[in-house]
Amino acid sequence: MNIEHTPIISLKNVSFSYNQQLVLQEINLSLSPGKFIGIIGPNGSGKTTMLKLISGILTPQKGKIQIFNQDIRTIPRKKMAKIISMVPQESYITYNYKVKEVVFMGRIPYINQWKGETILDYQISRNAMEKTDSLRHAEKGIHQISGGEMQRVYIARALAQSPRILMLDEFASHLDLSYKYEIINILQEVLKGEVKCIISVFHDLNLASYCSDQLILLNQGKIEKIGTPQEVINNHTLKKVYRTKTNIIQHPELSIPQVIM
Amino acid sequence: MPQKKAIYLASLLTFFILVPLSLSAWGNSQDGLFPITLIDDFGTEVTLIKRPERIISAAPSNTEIIFALILESKLVGRSEFCNYPPGVEEIESIGVMSPLNLEKIISLEPDLILSYGGFQTKDIPRLRELGFKVLVIEAESLAEMLRSIELIAAACGIPEKGRELITDLQERISVITNLSAIIPEIQKPKVFTGSSYETIWSPGNGTLFHELITLAGGLNIVGNQQGWVPISPELVAQAEPDIIIVPSGIMNPDEINKMKNDIINRPGWSQLPAIKNNQIFTVNEDFFYRAGPRLVDGLELLYEIFNKTRKE
Amino acid sequence: MKSLIKPEKNNLYGYSNWRYKAIFIITIGFLAILIIGFAALNFGTIAIQPQKILSIIWQHRTDDSLDLIIWELRIPRLIMAMLTGMALASVGGGFQGILRNPLADPYILGVSAGAALGACSAIALQYITGLYLVHILPIFALIGALISISLVYLLSRKKSHLPMADLLLAGVAVNFFFSAIITLLLAISRREIHSMVFWLMGDLSAASWQKVSFIFLPVFLGTLLLISSSLELNAMALGEEEALHLGVQTEKLRLRIFFIGSVMIAIVVSFTGLIGFVGLVIPHIARLLVGPDHRIMLPVSALAGSIFLIICDTIARSIIAPTEIPIGAITALVGAPIFIHLLKRRNETDEY
Description:
The structure holds three protein chains of three kinds. By secondary structure, chain A is α/β, with parallel strands linked by helices. Chain A has helices at residues 47-55, 77-83, 99-104, 119-131, 147-160, 177-190, 205-211, 229-232, 235-242; strands at residues 9-18, 21-31, 35-40, 62-67, 70-71, 84-87, 165-169, 197-201, 214-219, 222-227, 247-250, 257-260. In chain A, the strands form three sheets. Chain A has a six-stranded mixed β-sheet with strand order 6-7-8-3-9-10, sandwiched between helices. In chain A, α4 (119-131) packs across α5. In chain A, 43% of the residues are buried. The two termini of chain B are 23 Å apart. In chain B, the strands form four sheets. A four-stranded parallel β-sheet of chain B has the order 4-3-5-6. In chain B, strands 9-7-11-12 form a four-stranded parallel β-sheet. Chain C is mainly α. Chain C has helices spanning 2-5, 18-41, 50-58, 65-98, 111-129, 137-156, 164-188, 193-200, 209-227, 230-238, 240-245, 250-272, 278-290, 294-318, 327-349. In chain C, α4 (65-98) packs parallel to α9 and α5 (111-129) packs antiparallel against α8 (193-200). Chains A and C meet through α2, β6, α3 and α4 of A and α10 and α11 of C.
């Protein structure tokens, strides 16, 4: 955890309860720019909740969250949408909008209702679709494409939002192997641009290990460990959190840990 | 019982006093009857500048009064349901009673509209807004019916004809009431009348039907309740009516028999005196639901029915 | 048909600002209303020639009975139908948006039951008290509607939130409850049952310039306000969370649409009774014609609603003249087959 730049996201003593149930407690976190952050942990450990807290959808009962050194509570919703965009795991779209319309909705935070959109908005949307290889589906209805195609469309929409922080919730669950690699490439590309931070929730530990510069391991609402994949994914820690024996090997080409069944 | 007699006498006197008294309320000019300001049954003041020549009647009761006053030559429009007297079909129909067809009414260019009240009340303000003269006539008793004749006759500039008609009707009414007045209470038949649907609606105190039954010498089994009331078949069975009056618009004898059979076969009613003695009478409902001169026909009809029953 | 309605300027993602599309469509819509409106003026109990109608419109004289029929009866009624259709269709579209439910209609959030209870109470009270209440019946209906709207709001509010599911459920509950009271009223009011049922079925026959002046501004303003939320409604279609992430304040949006829509409908319904089907079906037809983008779909919905109701009203008052069929029956008779057809089409092709 080098502290080269000031942290772009920081959580101080954050606790969150839902229906009197404590979901996250005493979370202290400081994330530096330029990194791909992965959040891992067993079901119910609070992974998605942490994403929602950072994006401001949920408000913690205790503690302070800061984005780019600004208290999240002082940032209006619309401004937030220009900073953070989120790719959901799955969602149901009520009407059969076209793919290009769905991606274009990513520009909503920037468009004035009455003035309408500008050609820049269209170009950004188009770029986002090109990057995610969903341009060829542009005219199709969103209900008519496959799960994998839809996931790429969601990513395109999140990119069209011109975010500085990109958040994803299990982005690869429906993707073919080839697309997995492509998307990871795209994500790593944008990390070099205006996107200063990518945070993703992972169920797949190996994918997490492959993508992330930094991992946050959650256990029952608390941070069990933060560190590089090498530091976090080891037999001892995983056994403690997942309560099963694990076998960890080194990836043959890259120096990252992989869990094998 | 002397108490009841007194009440009958009192109501008779009311007819003879109230009606002529109210006459003085109409009309406010000595020579030449128009312009005239009248107060209709809803309390609205209506001023007629000149004698009406084009009258529209929006209810059968008003139509029958118009014909009884021999004013039909001035009638240019009548409701779809006006069916008496013969000759009424010649007059153009303005459609159903509610909602009133304003286009039709306007196109007939009436200078007086006789409305009914009830469901027509929402159309009346509109007609008045458009400049039409509308009198709302809503009678719920014999006395009020006679006053309606009064009002219409005055509005049309023939108060004497009105008085004539009223006197005739009053005489016929007093004949019946006199005859009934001498019947001892215990000899009066218990009468039940009501709708024949699943839920029976029966006319209680304050309704026209109740008044007619009472004046004709009968005892209405729901006379102790106010207005039209829904009653259970059990209540009817308990009351043990001697006569069942079935008002209906159907005149076909086969259909009438079917109706009678339905009543006879109604569960729990087999022991009713009316059914055991076959005292079920169908009557033309137009005599009893329309506040027009034929109410008196209805009164006389009821008296006949009750009289026969009593003798047997 | 689709390419006619949506003139795409150039390629795949051609830059055609939605405003041009919208202006084009709205202009066509208004023209259609004018033409169909004029055609509607030709129908009625009394036959009046088109040339006569034109001359009456051009030169309004107050002494001619035909003139009276056109200016005091048919034209206000036409405008009433137009405004009512516009209100119902745009609020229907708005509610379908905030509730994310294609089956939502303008009455689902409690307006109808309250207005109905208010109106029926006025009718019953008139009989009981003998007071002439009919011309202030709209006030009763409006008060009733406002009460039920407030009830729905209070029931569904959780602290400072307005959750969507709760809004829907509260609306349904309030509707049920008030309907029960109305049924009770109907059961005990023999004489007035006819008037009550007629009101419940919707009735434009009492339209007048005065009434038009009451609903004109609320309907136009309300429709404009609804349309101004189009982008946010688009976002809502993606999902509540997605909309939040796009910067939409979903709770405020729901509140706004709920209140604007409900009050607008309350005002309209106070005068016209409950006309069904328009608010449910027309938004779907609009989507079928121009797609689900609310910025175009809502204006089209409003215009289509106007046209639909003008046509239905014309049928209602002239098909068996001089008797009038309640307009609620016509909208349902015409609307139901259209709706069924849409459903079949949706299942087959998943058009929108």
